[in-house]
Amino acid sequence: MILQAICLSSFLLGGIASADSEGDAYQIGAGDSVSVQVFDETELSGAFSIGEDGFIDYPLLGRVNVAGKTAGGLDDTLTAALGERFVRDPQIQVTVTKFGSQPVQVLGAVKKPGLVHLEGRTTVLDVISKSGGVADGSVAEVRIQFKDQSKGAITVQIDDLVKNESANVVLSAGDVVHVSEGLVVYMSGQVAKPGAVSYNDGLTITQALTRAGGATRLAKTREAYILRGEQRISINVKKILKGKAADVTLRPDDQVVLSESVF
Question: Residue 141, exposed/middle/buried by CB under 10 A (0-12, 13-18, 19+)?
């Protein structure tokens, strides 16, 4: 007979994967649940939760150790055991219906930090997506701490995860993904959207002002200033916007202040 084993694929790919796909490489463990369907044998079909010891209680066979098996591997085990004593040429399909045995931690600037359970082949972008995505546009980098100490830890720029397939590494149970808070500058006073705006290398006054929605009509653009630590740096935003003065490059944590005009 042709053995069949179907399990869920990764979140990124979606859908259902065949037995020879990467999704079938998922190793079943405690906390997972499986569906076993035996053709024409309803009493042998059903849903089974894997206990802490890695076993399921299966009709006729009793306790069956499934820990570490793939859906296809469990299919083979049950097919052999049932075919040997109970069912002639059993036709079986095994599906992983609940993933709960292989957690990774997602921390930092995501909307829903916490545990994410792997579902077959799962990448860094997959678990960030499952955590609700990054919390704001200022996120700059992601640090991955691997459980396998021989791999150590790596830091990846958030843009590289999208543009460079090799940077979007596949995770294993026990890995930790930390999404770093991004660098920012602060826009205050007479701007449309006061508060933090995302920083990038080479960020200028005009770019930061655009991200803050621009100056209000009450802004005293001739007498703006930057607070940088204990420094107060005067700037004439009006001249900069008209191209009559050089744009000013900002640093992380600078505070740009546009006061209100008295006229």
Answer: middle
**What's the pTM value of the predicted model, to 2 decimals?**
0.64
CA-based nearest residue to 35, from 98, 87, 103, 121 = 98
- State the Cα–Cα distance between residues 80 and 214, nearest whole angstrom: 71
Domains of the chain: 7-98 (3.30.1950.10), 103-179 (3.10.560.10), 184-258 (3.10.560.10)
Interacting residues of 241 by C-beta distance below 8 A, sequence separation 6+: 206, 221
pLDDT band at 263 (very low <50, low <70, confident <90, very high): low
Given the DSSP bridges, would you call strands 176-179 and 184-189 parallel, antiparallel or unpaired? Answer: unpaired
- Mind giving me the DSSP string for 154-208? EEEEHHHHHH-GGGSPBP-TT-EEEEPPPPEEEEEESBSS-EEEE--TT-BHHHH
Quick one: average pLDDT of 251-262? 88
